[in-house]
Amino acid sequence: xxxxxxxxxxxxxxxxxxxxxxxxxxxxxxxxxxxxxxxxxxxxxxxxxxxxxxxxxxxxxxxxxxxxxxxxxxxxxxxxxxxxxxxxxxxxxxxxxxxxxxxxxxxxxxxxxxxxxxxxxxxxxxxxxxxxxxxxxxxxxxxxxxxxxxxxxxxxxxxxxxxxxxxxx
Amino acid sequence: xxxxxxxxxxxxxxxxxxxxxxxxxxxxxxxxxxxxxxxxxxxxxxxxxxxxxxxxxxxxxxxxxxxxxxxxxxxxxxxxxxxxxxxxxxxxxxxxxxxxxxxxxxxxxxxxxxxxxxxxxxxxxxxxxxxxxxxxxxxxxxxxxxxxxxxxxxxxxxxxxxxxxxxxxxxxxxxxxxxxxxxxxxxxxxxxxxxxxxxxxxxxxxxxxxxxxxxxxxxxxxxxxxxxxxxxxxxxxxxxxxxxxxxxxxxxxxxxxxxxxxxxxxxxxxxxxxxxxxxxxxxxxxxxxxxxxxxxxxxxxxxxxxxxxxxxxxxxxxxxxxxxxxxxxxxxxxxxxxxxxxxxxxxxxxxxxxxxxxxxxxxxxxxxxxxxxxxxxxxxxxxxxxxxxxxxxxxxxxxxxxx
Lengths: 169, 403
Prior knowledge:
Strand content of chain A: 25-35%
Strand content of chain B: 15-25%
Helix content of chain B: 25-40%
Largest sheet of chain A: 5 strands, mixed, barrel
Largest interface: A-B, 76 and 89 residues
Oligomer: heterodimer
Order of helices and strands of chain B: EHEHEHEEHHHEEEHEHHEHHHHEE
Number of helices of chain B: 13
Helix content of chain A: 10-25%
Distance between the termini of chain B: 51 Å
Order of helices and strands of chain A: HEHEEEEEEEEEE
Number of strands of chain A: 11
Strand order of the largest sheet of chain A: 7-8-9-11-10
């Protein structure tokens, strides 16, 4: 029976909030990764490779719509504002402001020691808060992090991939 | 993964769409709920049967008359629907739906009744703590992460709780809601649970104990999380003509509405959880013909504590940014306060039933059967599910002219 008013079948809601199932082999794989304590790394694809290639050169480049010029991140096939496909990858300064952060004590993605800070940063060039670069904050005690804190990007290379980290300015 | 572009649709119903009106054409006529346990002591089929039989019994009906069934689980494999139907003595299931939760599933069952697909529907939520939580989507043999998560998981951001933590932190910072105010919500709900014999938590919780609870991912403590339980919750619905002659006063479905936004766009619309806009909620008030001020009881989804104040603001029952002050001190949201909130203890203290417990409690309160925690003559309740930008809500009312 199709729910006329709900185009998305609610069983697709993510667990913790809603229904989901995960194959058991994936779960045991997660346990294995946790045991090995290896930091997960991105798997660049057609859509995301320009970001990671630029990062390797020490440049922060973000997808921008060629029609309406809105920046968007993470990259997507269509512009989230106007739907256009055409885009370019302008270089940004790396300066930004902390949009939000969490201090993780317990969930612990493999390769991270507790407690660690995850920040989301709005680049100063973005006019839209949804442009948020997720990274880690170095050199700031976890109880000193604040929303609105000015930060700048540095890259940390792990396994041959340059990952965005931030430090306070 | 869902790659559809982000949408902000205006709900068809706000424009007077062609869908059947649910304003008091369908009622909940009986509820049932098993006890809630930490470990799986009873097979899920038996849990479902117990809750469903209790709902039929409460309505004064033989469960065998039921011809519509919606079984909700969030684990795999799915429940033994044929076994459950047979156990209830149902020979002819004319309408069956699997999955869904809370207010949107309530609305879906009502729509089936409205179009005449069936005459009596049992909706049953079965919870099982064996169900997995979402883990970061890391390819085990390579340690790599694809899709949009490649921009999050390599930085230690891989769990739903962390992502909602980011939205809560942002919201707290913007509107000044404090940990102490959230503490009042959690302790008030715990006090409600102590008055609910079916609730999982049986011990009081103080503000100090809340504030001393261990962090999971700041700003979220362990006590901000709903509590996983095993159990089942069920309610029986039917049409207005059939509802009139049953044992209980009918609890009418005045309206329901569901967000058109996919939860898979969650990472992109996180700020909307707290701040909207939520045009889909317009249908809720439009179809019921009431305003936010008419809602006596607020049964608000509390998968995480912070969803409760965020729902208050999304529903417009308090001003934007005003929820912390409303919660503070606990007196206004207590069962004997001006707008009781989660009088069963909510998922934080009764146990995680994905919003099914909120519906059952709304019915008990409206019918005046919430012994020990009964609100003063409520006639209108709002029930919400999931979170405001990707959730659902329903308004339940009592016919105050019939007693």
